[in-house]
From TrEMBL:
<dbReference type="InterPro" id="IPR012545">
    <property type="entry name" value="DUF1697"/>
</dbReference>
<dbReference type="Pfam" id="PF08002">
    <property type="entry name" value="DUF1697"/>
</dbReference>
<protein>
    <recommendedName>
        <fullName>DUF1697 domain-containing protein</fullName>
    </recommendedName>
</protein>
Length: 176
């Protein structure tokens, strides 16, 4: 069985898409994923499953819509993928709150990457590899035009800061 990290986009942000984590864990258990562990209130969970990620994501998405009325992208990464993302971090000296991992539904074209890079200000740097982008935003992500553009892509995308990705990896490594 694979250890999966589930990343939801836009839950419990500014009062929208309210999803209490105990209820999210209960939904996962009802979907045949018992023992899921959640991390903070922003829609992160870690669990074991044998199914393909596309099947799991569809089940979770359907369950969220049916039970809570939440329609949001569900992105799954295996523990191995999370570990690889951390190991490949192109900004090892960045402060944990200045580095964000953008998990993408698929890769970005070269033209789109160039277009995104053009939005960088205040020392921001974007590195893209397949379905992952690292954004180093030294002055913060709150006012970043580059982060805003990444969030508005016409594909499933969600971001987590370095500290959260490290915590999810730790949980996934120790999942019973």
């Amino acid at each position: 069985m694979t250890v999966w990290v589930c990343l939801l986009r836009g839950v419990n942000v500014g009062g929208a898409n309210r999803l209490p984590m105990p209820e999210f864990r209960a939904l996962l258990a009802d979907l045949g994923l018992p023992g899921a562990v959640s991390h903070i209130q922003s829609g992160n969970a870690v669990f074991r499953a044998a199914e393909a990620p596309e099947v799991l994501a569809a089940r979770i998405s359907h369950g969220l819509a049916r039970r809570f009325g939440i329609a949001t992208p569900v992105l799954l990464r295996s523990l191995a993928q999370i570990e690889a993302a951390l190991a490949a971090n192109p900004f090892p000296e960045a402060a944990p709150t200045a580095l964000h991992f953008f998990f993408l539904g698929n890769g970005l074209s070269d033209d789109l990457q160039v277009s995104l890079q053009a939005r960088a200000v205040d020392g921001e740097t974007l590195v893209v590899a397949n379905d992952l982008a690292w954004l180093h935003a030294p002055v913060g992500i709150g006012r970043s035009r580059l982060a805003e553009a990444l969030g508005r892509l016409k594909l499933p995308v969600t971001a987590r800061n370095l500290r959260t990705v490290q915590a999810l990896a730790k949980i996934a490594r120790t999942l019973p």
